[in-house]
Every structure is written in structure tokens, then in C-alpha cells.
Design brief:
alpha+beta, FAD/NAD(P)-binding domain, D-Amino Acid Oxidase, Chain A, domain 2, Arc Repressor Mutant, subunit A, eight-stranded mixed β-sheet, five-stranded antiparallel β-sheet, 12 helices, globular
């Protein structure tokens, strides 16, 4: 049995960021994911906001890592060909009391090193955010806020990590861990793994993984957030990310620009017990609409084309990132809620440093392949480029998803890159993500998946075992 230098449990944005960072060194690395595909845990429900660091206490770990990550993510996006857009954020005040709170946020963010902050007045807002509620008196403007596709970021990180030698194991649910003489023995649904060091980036289940090694000093409490996606025709609803003043437990209901053009509104913030509770509700919808309309009164519920719920892994007020002396070689990376996506590259650097401090030799490879070619998406390409692509390969002209302008070539490429489910294709390409929700393209995508993977149609699933789409044939 092969012994890895490092095993990482959890292949969301944090796990894949750590894997890519460690892939710079001469190490054997295993990345273990219990789901059918990567980014199917906490990361699948991420809003894609790259936060500037305006809403975290200046002495918090998450605040420091957010500001560092905001800087790093620009460099990594260029290296991996990920679309990052700096759109800026506005935290809106509706009265003088709110305005004083903005000054406090500005001061704290300045202590963290957030740049470009300023208070903008009603006249500036009227000119630069014309759909904003006219009752807004001022806003804290943070220009370094941005947006990114969280799913494609995860896939591109993982693909680059694999190119640099990382081994990824999906459908690998960890069931038990033993600390033996000099290594960890990790029992999983797909077999047994041995590793000298172990990193726990298991999201909602990080407390359960930690408990397997007798480290029981934190508990993950799921916090559900319901979000609602608007039609692309509303892409100009807001020019910035728009926030209300934050509450004690949440950044509030936002107006969210996304990397793919569809605005989103949400999320709610409701503490729940069930780590599998992804239900949405009329109560959540009404709560979000009421709050969102306070920011932009023209929001219409008829423009909502989809809705979903995500669970944030809350473990107190700050991130938990530490080496566990009780189990030498074991590093917990837990409670990574917002701004976890933004902080992920900085978290990876911190974890690498913790591993080094605890005996892992980090010897750089002579060659690290730090770049990848940008994935082609017709929905983001100008017509002139699309024509050139079709001339080069006619499969680009075979449009499978008309809502999102996704070709057969893009879907086949996504499968070759690792997609094995309908959601895996959707997250990589946006096929099925439009107003019709796959009504016209589902059967075609299934056929392509079957052809490329040689799976029968009855084995093709939405997101893994138990979500089969075709149950059997009728005679």
C-alpha cells in the first residue's frame, strides 16, 4: 500500500487550494472527496463573492486571511484562466445611525489593510447605482470586491493540482482514521489510505472527521442560506455588490452580481440541525424579497428563475486552522464559512506553513506547472471568436443548451475533464442553468455523457448515487 506524504479530506475550494499549493513541492498527495464530483459540498452553494475584508473584526483570522486572499486570488485567476471581475461593493446606510456604523466598519477594514475605502454620498449613489433605493443616504464603497465562478475555480485548481502530481479520489467517504506509528491509516468507502500527515478540510463534516482522532473540541453547526437567482435579462440590476449593514451572525440579504451574469438575491441565515437540509421555503423567499427590495425596490419575483439553499459550516466566530498536538501530523481546517472562498489561497499558504513547522519537508520541485489554458465558454466569447472556433471545430456550432449557449464540444470537453454527473456538467459549462432548467438539453447531455463515459443511461445521475434520472426501460 502506497504511503502518501499528505492526505487532504474534502475537495471543495479549501481542499483543492491546499492541494495545489502543496503540489509545488516534492510530495505525494492524496485528495479525498466523498461525493461523486468535486465542489458538491459547501462550495456548490457559494455566491462567488471575493470579499475585500470590510466586515470582519481586525483581530480575526478570517479577516486577515480574507484581505490576503483577495490579493492572491487575482494572481491565481490569471494563472488558471479563471474569470475574475473586480466590481466593488457598497454597504448601504439609510439613516445617520447607519452612517456612523459605516465609519466604524471603514476604520476596522483600514486596520486590516483594505485599500481604496471611502464613504460615498447620495449624489454619487444616484449616478453610479441608479436602481438603488433613493432613501439611501450614503454607502461604504470598497472597490476591491470581486466576483468569480466558485465551481469553475474549484475544478481549475484541482485540474492544475493533478497536472502537478496530486491524486484525486472521489466517491471516497472517510469512515475511520487510526493514528499508527508515524502515519495515519484512513479507512474509506473506496479502500484504505496511508499518509504521514493529514489535513481535515471536510466542511460541514469536519467535526466528525476530527472526532475520529479523538479531537472533540469544536462542533460544526449548519447555518442555512436560501438564495434566489434572477434571469440574465436583469444583469444590469446592480453595478456593484450591494450589502445592508451586517448583523451579528450574517452579512444580510445582498444583491449579488455573479460571474455568469445572473443576479442573485439572498441569503437567509437560519441555524439548522440537519447537515443535509437543503430545502427552500416560501418564508425564506418572502424574507429575501422584503430585504432585497429595501435595497433595490424594483426587484420582481417574476424574474426569479431558480432557487437553492446552502449550508455554512459554523464553528464559532472565527476559522479554526491549527495543528492538533493530541494527534501529531493532523491539521484541522474547520469552520470555514464566509469569507472562505476569498481566503482559500491564504488558507493554503497558512496550512503549508503549519505542516512545515511540524516536520514536513517542503522541497520545491524543479518544475511546477502553474498555468493552464483558459477554458472556452461560448457564453463569454464575442461573436468573432465564436465564428473562428466553429470554423476550427464544427462541434462548437452544435448548440446543446440554447439558454446558456453551450455547445456539444464544451460538454464533451467537460466530461473529459472529469464531469460524471449532470450537475458536474452544469457547474463546468452552465448547460441546464438557464430559465428552462434543462427542459430542452437534458436528454442530449445524457446521451453525450453516456457516449463519453460508456455508462448506460440508467447509471447517469444528477449528482451521484440515488439521483438517477432514468430508472429503467419500459417494454
Amino acid at each position: 500500500m502506497k504511503t502518501y506524504d499528505v492526505a487532504i479530506i474534502g475537495a471543495g475550494v479549501v481542499g483543492t487550494s491546499i492541494a495545489r499549493e502543496l503540489a509545488r513541492y516534492r510530495l505525494d498527495i492524496a485528495l479525498l472527496e466523498k461525493e461523486e464530483d468535486l465542489a458538491f459540498g459547501v462550495s456548490k452553494s457559494n455566491s462567488g463573492i471575493i470579499h475585500p475584508g470590510t466586515q470582519n473584526p481586525p483581530d480575526s483570522l478570517k479577516g486577515k486571511l480574507c484581505v490576503q486572499g483577495n490579493f492572491l486570488i487575482r494572481k491565481i485567476s490569471k494563472e488558471l484562466g479563471v474569470d475574475f471581475k473586480e466590481v466593488g461593493e457598497l454597504i448601504v446606510a439609510f439613516n445617520e445611525g447607519d452612517a456612523r456604523e459605516l465609519l466604524r466598519l471603514k476604520k476596522e477594514a483600514g486596520l486590516l489593510g483594505v485599500t481604496g475605502l471611502r464613504i460615498v454620498d447620495r449624489e454619487w449613489l444616484r449616478k453610479n447605482e441608479p436602481n438603488l433605493n433613493s432613501e439611501a443616504v450614503c454607502s461604504l464603497y470598497a472597490p476591491t470586491a470581486g466576483i468569480i465562478s466558485p465551481y469553475r475555480f474549484v475544478y481549475d485548481l484541482a485540474e492544475n493540482a493533478v497536472k502537478n502530481g496530486v491524486e484525486v479520489f472521489t466517491k471516497t467517504k472517510v469512515t475511520n482514521i487510526n493514528r499508527l506509528d508515524g502515519y495515519f491509516e484512513i479507512g474509506a468507502s473506496s479502500g484504505v489510505f496511508k499518509s504521514r500527515y493529514l489535513v481535515n478540510a471536510a466542511g460541514l463534516f469536519a467535526d466528525e472527521i476530527s472526532a475520529m482522532l479523538g479531537v472533540n473540541n469544536f462542533k460544526i453547526k449548519p447555518r442555512k442560506g436560501e438564495e434566489f437567482i434572477l434571469d440574465k435579462k436583469k444583469t444590469d440590476l446592480a453595478r456593484h455588490l450591494i450589502f445592508p449593514l451586517p448583523s451579528r451572525i450574517s452579512k444580510g440579504v445582498l444583491i449579488i452580481k455573479t460571474a455568469d451574469g445572473n443576479p442573485m438575491i439572498g441569503p437567509t441565515a437560519e441555524d439548522v440541525e440537519d447537515k443535509e437540509d437543503f430545502s427552500t421555503s416560501d418564508i425564506g423567499l418572502n424574507r429575501v424579497l422584503t430585504s432585497a427590495r429595501r435595497l433595490i425596490p424594483s426587484i420582481n419575483d417574476r424574474d426569479i428563475i431558480a432557487y437553492f439553499a446552502g449550508l455554512r459550516p459554523v464553528a464559532g466566530s472565527d476559522f479554526i486552522i491549527r495543528h492538533e498536538e493530541k494527534s501529531p501530523g493532523f491539521v484541522n481546517v474547520a469552520g470555514i464559512q464566509s469569507p472562505g472562498l476569498t481566503a482559500s489561497p491564504a488558507i493554503a499558504l497558512l496550512v503549508a506553513g503549519i505542516l512545515k513547522d511540524n516536520g514536513l519537508a517542503l522541497k520545491k520541485k524543479l518544475i511546477f506547472h502553474g498555468h493552464r489554458n483558459k477554458t472556452i465558454h461560448l457564453f463569454a466569447a464575442p461573436a468573432s471568436k465564436t465564428r473562428r472556433l466553429i470554423k476550427k471545430d464544427h462541434a462548437y456550432g452544435d448548440i446543446v443548451c440554447r439558454c446558456e449557449m453551450v455547445s456539444a464540444k464544451e460538454i464533451r470537453d467537460a466530461v473529459k475533464r472529469g464531469a460524471r454527473t449532470m450537475d458536474g456538467v452544469k457547474f463546468r459549462t452552465r448547460a441546464q442553468a438557464g430559465r428552462c432548467h434543462g427542459s430542452f438539453c437534458t436528454t442530449r447531455i445524457m446521451k453525450i455523457l453516456a457516449e463519453e463515459t460508456r455508462m448506460p443511461l440508467t447509471e447517469i445521475t444528477k449528482r451521484g448515487k440515488g439521483s438517477e434520472i432514468v430508472k429503467g426501460s419500459s417494454r
